């Protein structure tokens, strides 16, 4: 799964990317023209606890790909320019994360010459909406012509779906707020539409803005409209970056001093799992404790296939206990005694935090 970080130049987007990726800042990175990709470990306190209990040779976190898409900056005519390359970079992601500037720094001017988070959010939303509108205008025209000529049944079924989406976009609402059934989503899935992608918004504050966090988050949420359930996350990019460079003990002290209860990494990646409909299950043992990423409603057989295709094809049963039950009872033997360890068939729906052992032929 891929998250695309999107923002205007000097929003703190690349600082956030470096924090998530655990890499040192490069002053020239804000002027780059190509997207940077890193595979980021997803922090999980449950995996940490299981590793502590089993003391395995290896601990393997779930991972997610994060793309740092070059920031939007002014062109020679003094206007912010949305390029085809930029839009293509955005399309290649499963979800979008807008990095929006609230911090003030007179040495780093905002591209629009003002600090207004809601204005920046609406600028991006409008540009992506216009891009989707252009696609639907062209696609509807083509489908109508081809359907009239060929009487193709598939095209005839596609047309009302396209028109439904077009009408929604013309009302200035993104497609993620439109109710679409499985057939409609399947029809649209190949078009890489921008406003249908799950969205998160991060507001980048500075340490002088602690008292403004709640009011600004509320303003942005209200500005998105009552149909939107978009997650809006406050973070402090500069502080979080400094935090990520510390060792574990110093990090805990630093977080306590600044009143930070959860790191940006944990907060953002946790929210990403939520909006993408993802969850984790675990495999444990003396050799390895590992978190695996699956979609919600995956069956035991589907989940086995994530580990190895042979496990899917040769699936017999899954030994299952929940993370909470295992922590409560402390061993598989005691889980069996308590009746919370069980054998499940291939249709069992795996739950977040399940510990699985796959039996296969």
Structural write-up:
The protein has 361 residues and is an alpha/beta fold. It folds into three domains: 2-115 and 198-276, Rossmann fold; 128-191, Obg-related GTPase Ych/YyaF, coiled-coil domain (DNA polymerase, domain 1, Orthogonal Bundle); 297-360, Ubiquitin-like (UB roll). Helix content is 43%, strand content 19%. It contains 14 helices and twelve strands. The chain has helices spanning 13-21, 45-54, 84-91, 117-150, 153-170, 182-188, 213-223, 237-244, 248-258, 264-276, 300-307, 309-313, 323-329, 332-338, and strands at residues 2-6, 36-41, 58-60, 63-68, 95-101, 199-204, 231-235, 278-283, 288-295, 315-322, 342-344, 354-360. A six-stranded mixed sheet has the order 2-4-1-5-6-7, sandwiched between helices. A hairpin with a 4-residue loop joins strand 8 and strand 9. The longest helix has 34 residues, at 117-150. The radius of gyration is 23 Å and the shape is flat. The model has no long low-confidence stretch (mean pLDDT 90).
